[in-house]
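Reading group handout, session on sequence-to-structure problems. Before we discuss, look at one worked example. The prompt was deliberately terse, the way you'd type it at a terminal:

> structure Sugar ABC transporter permease

The input record follows.
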Amino acid sequence: MQKIQTRDSMLLAQRGSIKKGGIKTRELILFVAMGLFALLMISPVLWMFSASFQNQAEMFKASFNWIPLNATLNSYRNVWVNGNLSGAFLTSLEVTLIYVPIHVLVCTLTGYVFAKFNFRFKNITFLFIIATMLIPQETTFFPVYDIVKNLGWLNTPQGVVLPFFFSGFGIFLMRQYALAIPNELIEAAKIDGCSDSRSFFSIALPLLQPGMTALAILALTFIWNEFAWSRLVLSDPGSQTLPIALYFLSHTAGVSQAIKYPDLLAASVLTAAPVLILFLFFQRRFIESISSVGIKG
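And the output record:
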């Protein structure tokens, strides 16, 4: 009897080891496949970064050198000085510093109101706000353009950010975070004599910081890369943002002797680098903020 039990236990152990080995093999195959896919996705970015340090002759060689043989910063220096990239960078920075805090505050306040206050037509109003996400933003450009023009905000940072202060997604995101705040905390604050505004800034706002961080990163990424509306509003060459400056550089690269293809790639690196570095720096906090959103009704 003991021999039979021992034999059965040995068979079960062998099956378990085979199963574990099979799982490890599948995990290894999946890991390799994901690594190859990630390499495929990032290879154009690596090529752009490498070519931006090369001269045009080395860039167009039959065999491309992923590590530049004669690395140079001439392309970066050229686009920064002659390609109007320094002015465009300052304009983009100004637009971002205006837009992100106001957008986050507006969406946070609105989302908190929809989560913690009861008023007439609350649900219908919220559904209307969500429905705005289904409307292509380009369809609102012309009426908003008339408003910006009448305000005298053409070729100004405030003219760029005006249509984007309101965001259906931002309000929805912050409402979900506000729903996770226990009502007992707000009620206890009111019993202690706190007004609605003080309850928001003293109690709710610190608890909403993870959501505000995630929304700020999304807002920064959006406004830094925004092109269509900025192209319509910013017609003055001295008020261009980075995407617009990059657009005009792409039309002169290879045609003008002043701007060559490595210069265009250097401009692309300078345009993408700030947002990419910021995202990598706050990557863990951003993922934790998004994953912690509770879906409450």
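Points for discussion. First: Residues 184 and 190 are 10 Å apart (CA to CA). Second: The chain has a mean pLDDT of 83.
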